[in-house]
Amino acid sequence: MARMQPSDTRSDTVRRALRQAEPCLWLNPQRQHAVAAAQPVAGAHLRLEDTQAAAARFARFAPVLAQVFPELQACGGAVESPLLAADALHAAAGLAPGQGRLWIKADHRLPVAGSIKARGGIHEVLEFAEGLALRQGLLPAQAGPQDYLALAGAQARALFGRYTVAVGSTGNLGLAIGVAASKLGFRAVVHMSADAKEWKKERLRQRGVQVVEHAGDYEGAVAAGRTQAAQDPLCHFVDDERSLSLLLGYSAAAPHLQRQLAQEGIAVDARHPLFVYLPCGVGGAPAGITFGLRHALGQHVHCFFAEPVQSPCFLVQMLAGPGEHPSVYDLGLTNRTEADGLAVPRASLPAAELMAPLLSGAFTVRDDTLFRHLVQVLDTTGERIEPSAAAGFSGPEMLAGTSAGRDWLAAHGLLEHLPQATHLVWTTGGLFVPPVEYERFVQRGRMLA
């Protein structure tokens, strides 16, 4: 069993709550106000320029994406989501009058994959395709947008068809990788864990993606996929636990959100703090977004990760000692949750390393709460989200409605500015949930309500 790092009384309280699968709030004592220009992670140094490069790659490929995905034609190939005001959800999220305003970053509406995984997953597929095309002469060194259209043509498909893109997933990342890779002409293989939803497997098969099922959990599916891919020199494995390309693809959301906030007249400064609540599985997606937001918006954005009480792998990792990589099983937890995309036993070490100075905190939530929030979102906004996408809606109450949260706000000079604060819940999936499956979610949520 992994040791947990000695800490203060509050951290001990969090550890007890974790072991008892009780909701809790952890606040990061390592968070730094200033953001370093270059952040060391996994032997590399990530900068704002890396986020900008990922955003530029999406822009270069926009004509290609618009051609291969009909649903992207109207938006010119942009893979983006709207920013929605959610005033009607204040009470459900535990926000009292004078505690700020609630918004939703609606990644549950992201086209192509229907989840936040469209960002990182599509980016890595595009980066791999771009590298192949440049090396094989299908793209000139100084290619323009029109040059990229060749990557939707027969010659590019013939090249890409020699290669396999593989990934291990509980569902949503597999959908993003599988659909994007197969549309460009790659062979696509998705290794899926036992807790992956059956409809996600079927959706992939219908699009010509090979689905390999594994009896174990997410970690086992990733390990099996990694081992199999290593035996094929023409296979590119998208490693959810280690990939910086994935992480930077997620980070590309930051410049777009920055523009959306400006369009809505939302300031982010000392008197107008921004609190962002992000569902967290292995950690790559929320870490990438947090990295991008902290570099784009600075010290006045505060990001919090949301995890199921039975699968709080990132929080467990943040509490661990140097050199340790504990699992939720070490705490006697089951790693079983209806939030299938968050059912991860062990966090990404690169993501945890990157978040040490950037993350404000993390909290845990019960599955029953996910279903209640799912129904409240439907009833007040009409938006259809899956259970994992509801995890962030507990964040405002955890922060503004608990003694630990309010003490932290006061200690950081934020409590007095709470009336002018913006609370942003990042919803992560739900667009493609089948009606029968979604109705089951709604029925459970209504029974709990």
Question: What would you say this structure looks like, in words?
Answer:
42% of the residues lie in helices and 14% in strands. It has 449 residues and is α/β, with parallel strands linked by helices.
Distance between the termini: 38 Å
Query: How are helices and strands ordered from N to C?
Result: HEEEHEEHHHEHEHEHEHHEHEHHEHHHEH
CATH topology of the largest domain: Rossmann fold
- Average pLDDT reading: 94
Brief descriptors of the model:
single chain, 449 residues, alpha/beta, Rossmann fold, 7-stranded mixed β-sheet, 4-stranded parallel β-sheet, 17 helices, 14% strand, globular, disordered N terminus
Task: Compile the SSE list and pairings.
Blueprint: H1 9-19, E1 25-27, E2 39-41, E3 44-46, H2 48-68, E4 83-85, E5 101-106, H3 117-135, H4 145-148, H5 154-160, E6 164-169, H6 172-184, E7 187-192, H7 198-206, E8 210-213, H8 218-230, E9 235-238, H9 244-251, H10 253-263, E10 274-279, H11 284-297, E11 301-308, H12 313-319, H13 349-355, E12 361-365, H14 367-381, H15 395-400, H16 403-411, E13 422-427, H17 435-448
Parallel strand pairs: 5-13, 6-7, 6-9, 7-8, 10-11, 10-13, 11-12
Antiparallel strand pairs: 1-12, 2-3, 4-5
In short:
With 449 residues, the chain is α/β, with parallel strands linked by helices. The chain has helices spanning 9-19, 48-68, 117-135, 145-148, 154-160, 172-184, 198-206, 218-230, 244-251, 253-263, 284-297, 313-319, 349-355, 367-381, 395-400, 403-411, 435-448; strands at 25-27, 39-41, 44-46, 83-85, 101-106, 164-169, 187-192, 210-213, 235-238, 274-279, 301-308, 361-365, 422-427. The chain has 17 helices and 13 strands.
